[in-house]
Design goal:
This protein is an alpha/beta fold. The protein is built from four helices and eleven strands; from the N terminus they run βαβαβαβββαβββββ. The strands form two sheets. It has a six-stranded mixed beta sheet with strand order 4-3-2-1-10-11, with helices on one face. Strands 5-6-7-9-8 form a five-stranded mixed beta sheet, with helices on one face. It is globular.
């Protein structure tokens, strides 16, 4: 059961398409975007599979557009943070810039907390929760996304070429 995780695409449609193609090749069954999409085109690109996303700090002006795109493309908008279940695991998602949102999600001790914001890939345990940041597709030396196997609890970063 594989989740493709993206974050901080910042309206880079071409690079996002390359990233989604790589995640599909890796066997992703669900896609999750951890915020800073910046426009509805990113929702459209990512909606080739069941798709969940949250708003990031650069999405504030695009919230109505992103909500409408979620409805149009049958995606799930988790607003500024939310939860879903996949493969028997509890997955929490937030962008990472709102400390109160992150704390509220962590209080439920999900199996995974997926986030972005820092543009730095991260994989660490915090209590019983595995926190994963897939990196970013914008303002980074090496663009990356992640593929998360929730059955084997394995995460791999995938480098996204320009």
């Amino acid at each position: 059961m594989l989740i493709g995780v993206l974050s901080d695409t910042h309206n880079r449609a071409k690079r996002t398409q390359v990233a989604v193609d790589l995640l599909l090749e890796a066997g992703a069954e669900v896609l999750v975007h951890c915020g800073d999409l910046a426009n509805a085109r990113i929702v459209e690109i990512c909606s080739v599979l069941p798709f969940y996303f949250v708003f990031g700090n650069h999405d504030a002006d695009a919230v109505p557009e992103l909500r409408a795109a979620a409805e149009l493309h049958s995606a799930t908008c988790l607003e500024w943070g939310g939860r879903f279940s996949f493969g028997g695991k509890r997955i929490a998602v937030t962008h990472g810039h709102l400390a109160d949102e992150r704390k509220a999600l962590m209080a439920d001790e999900p199996d995974y907390l997926l986030s972005g914001h820092s543009h730095l890939a991260m994989d660490q345990m915090e209590g019983s929760t595995r926190r994963i940041n897939p990196g970013a597709l914008f303002r980074v030396r090496t663009a990356s996304v992640a593929i998360l196997d929730v059955v084997n609890d394995d995460m791999q970063l995938i480098v996204v070429p320009e």
